[in-house]
Each structure stands twice: as structure tokens, then as C-alpha cells.
Batch of 2 targets.
Target 1
Amino acid sequence: MAGEPLVTICGSAGGDAELKFLPSGAAVCEWSLAVTPRVKVGETWQDAETVWYRCAAWRQLGESAAESITKGMRLLVHGRLKVRTYEHQGQTRTSLEIDVEHVGAEMRYASVTARRVERHPGEDRSPQPAFSGGTSSDPWANTGTADESEIPL
């Protein structure tokens, strides 16, 4: 649906990402994202109420997210915000959901080693080593050893 606001949110994964495949074969990865603002009360900082978002990443992004996202991981999530209301045991409730377009680790709290993932239908989807033997000037190639000086910025 068009018209949903685009948001970028920094928060912590509430649990490990869960990957599912629809009957059509499309992959969808879901996880919860907790955002707890800090507020100043007098001379001290305190945690405000935590806001929870349900995140969903589709297809290739979903498969990569499922391999990477674990509980407690700090994430930057960008996507379309959807607000849904529903009835549960006679009460109206609201759910905040993000249809994820981009997701990555928040590098203030972690270092990240990126590797290119190429998938083909029917192949083994277990993680592969990022680099193995040989050399290459292409840091995304699956050959050679890369260090920070070889990765283009």
C-alpha cells in the first residue's frame, strides 16, 4: 500500500530473527525491535517506556537478516511504518509494524564483517566463509583475504 511513512529506527532485537517461506516460495523474516528512549529527570537520565515494533523483511533481505539478527543485537531499521488495530479478548489493541527495506548493525556497539551472499534456487543455504585462499582486489569476491585497507568506502 502506498502512503505509509518511511521511518529509520535504532533499537535492539527482542529475539532471534525467524525465517519462514510462503507457499509461493517467497522468504519472509520477522523479528521484534525494542526502542527505549532515555529521558532526563532532574539531573539524572532514566529509561522511558519501551516501544515495540514488529519487523518483516522479504526475499533476499529476509534470508540475510535471518542469518544475521540475534536477540539483543543493536540494529538500524529503515522501512514503511504501518499501524494496525485489532481486537484481542474484547480489547482494541494497536500494533506498530515495519515493512523493512534496509537493516544493518548499529556500529557504535559492534564491529561488522560484511560478506557478499549469492544464492541460487535449490542450493545449500548454510553460511559460507567470507574469504578463502588466494588474493583479490575485489573485497566482495569469495577469494583472498581482505583487511580494512582493501575495502572501498
Target 2
Amino acid sequence: MLSAFSLYLLCGSLVGILAGLLGVGGGLIIVPLLAAIFNSQGMSPDIIMHLALGTSLASIMATSLSSVYSHHQHRAVIWPMAFRLSPGVLLGAWSGGLLAGYLSGEILKPLFAVFELLVAAYMLWGGRTRSQGNTASWLDYGLGGGLIGMISSLVGIGGGTMTVPWLMWYGSSIHRAIATSAAVGFPIALAGSFSYLLSGWAQPLLPDYALGYIYLPALLGISLSSILFAPLGAKWAHNLPVKQLKKIFAVLLILLALYLLSLN
């Protein structure tokens, strides 16, 4: 338990930095790492992905709050846009978590890996994202938020990979989009984690210390360290070459996706 908890603390520190620095959501790292740790602990393969996804979303609540506070200190969060996205995001994330409860681990694992590879490909070869200055209607906010929330919940992430481009399409700068996506990540994590808790509540294969599909030891370790490191990432986001760092991160995502697919 001690060695596993140390790994949870390490995951949290990486996630906290990345959430603040790149606005891409720490779930892209948390999920495959947790799946690997849970597999090494002998948990049932039938629920490993569900536990990894649900625990990832629950931990993002802490990461998001810490990260968004730091961004707010820099006056970078566009709160009106975050609030308008929230209703659709909440509904989508809740639905995504419930849907994941009906899917098998053999479906969730390749689904996550394909999503991670797509994110990596976009970071490596996608066109440069520019602020477009389009005006979003309430329908845009509802549909955009719902889609972002549902996909994010299905793959256990905070949604930054989709929220940042969406915000930039509607006029936000890159730094303000990263900051605002951290704020949007909280309702995604809140609704998504509760739906994973509900969908896994009566699962007989759950290990000790699990609430539904949320594994409490992992949640504690990741949350503790991510809260400490998220402000550091948010600070670096305003000073470091984020574009170059995303290329390195993309390579890491590819390796993690391939490793996840190799797990039995």
C-alpha cells in the first residue's frame, strides 16, 4: 500500500503541473497510470478501467480548484464563458459517466487509447490554433458544453483538450482559454465523478476502500499532491514555451496509450 500510495502522490504532482501549465487535463496521464497500478495490485480486469476513469475525474475536482484559483490571481479566467458552458457540461458529464458504467473494460480501454492518440496527433501535427473572434449563441454553449462534458467523462479527463480550442474559436486568447478551461473542468469532474460513483455502487468486484468506481487511496494521494503542484504549473504557463512542451507531452501520450493497450 505504501509503494502504491507513493505512486499516487507522484501521479498527482505530474497532473497538477500539467493541468496548470498546458490546460490539457491530467486525466490523460492519470488514467493509464492508474490502470497500470491497479493491474499490478491484482484488481479485476473487468473494473480496472472504470476505477481508473472514475478516480481520475474525482481527483480533477481538487486539481481544477487549485489551478483555477492560481489563474484567477492572474485575472485570466473568462468567467462569463465558463458559467455559460457549465449547464451543458454538467449534463454531458453526468450522462457520460452513466454510459461508461454500461460499457465493458474491453470497450473503455481502446476508446481511451484512441482518444489519447488523437490528442497526441493533434498536438504534433495539428494546425496552429488561433483566436477566431466568433460569437457563441446559447445553443453553441449548450451543445458545445454537452459534447465536451460527455466525451470528457467517458475518458476520465477535465476536458481541456476540447475546451481550449472551443474557447479560442469563440475569441479567447490561448492563455485565457487555458485558464477558463480549468474552471470548466470542475463541473465536468463533479458531475462525472458522481455518476461513476452511482454506476459502480453495487458492483461486487470492487476492492476495499472504493466508493462506486472511485478508489479512495488513489484519490487521496493524487489530490494531495496535485493541489500543491497545480499553482506551479499555472505560474509556468505564463513564462515557459508551452508550444514546445506540448510536443514532448504528445510523445508521452503516445507511449502511455500503447502501454495501456498492452495491459491484459
